[in-house]
Write a structure and sequence with these properties.
Number of strands: 0
Number of helices: 5
Largest sheet: none
Shape: extended
Radius of gyration: 41 Å
Strand content: under 5%
Helix content: 40-55%
Low-confidence stretches: none
């Protein structure tokens, strides 16, 4: 009897798409945060399909609602309300700053260049003569470049031959 699973068959394990414990806890914490902020939790499918920009807009709206909530109390001198006002105002500012690249493009500096006049002079009556002059000019420029490199080159030719000042040794262990 063969044991094991057939090709393509799964035995055991978590079903595909089932969230793990951490994902479930994070979704529950996010839902609780929305309820505590005075907003109704969104359906799970809507939360998953939102883009980052849309989430930043939502965070900005929540933070600004809390800023308006604590503003009156902070103006009356409540220190805790003032601290919360600045906290949520900072959160709103951060969300707006992170959202800005999605809403408005960057302005790029573009340098203005002068149009240079084409001062090359190629004489010749036919297209063939002009092409020949162009090719000869390119060859002359390459030859001039090669000559300039040759002038600055280092001479690497070997010396005439070895100069030994020792007497010849025939390898028998005795000096000659």
């Amino acid at each position: 009897m063969p044991r094991g699973s057939k090709p393509g068959e799964r035995r055991g394990g978590r079903e595909k798409g089932t969230p793990n414990k951490r994902t479930t806890e994070l979704a529950e914490a996010a839902s609780n945060a929305l309820v505590n902020a005075g907003r109704a939790p969104l359906p799970e499918i809507v939360v998953l399909r939102k883009l980052g920009k849309e989430r930043l807009i939502e965070i900005d709206e929540i933070a600004m609602a809390l800023v308006y909530k604590y503003r009156a109390a902070a103006e009356e001198g409540d220190v805790v309300a003032e601290a919360l006002l600045w906290k949520y105002l900072g959160l709103a500012l951060d969300a707006a700053a992170r959202r800005a690249p999605y809403e408005s493009p960057w302005l790029a500096a573009v340098a203005v260049r002068e149009q240079k006049a084409d001062d090359r002079v190629i004489t010749g009556e036919s297209a063939r003569e002009r092409l020949l002059q162009t090719v000869l000019a390119v060859i002359a420029a390459e030859d001039a470049e090669a000559a300039a490199r040759a002038e600055g080159a280092i001479d690497v030719t070997p010396a005439a031959g070895p100069t030994h000042n020792e007497p010849e040794d025939d390898g028998d262990g005795e000096a000659a």
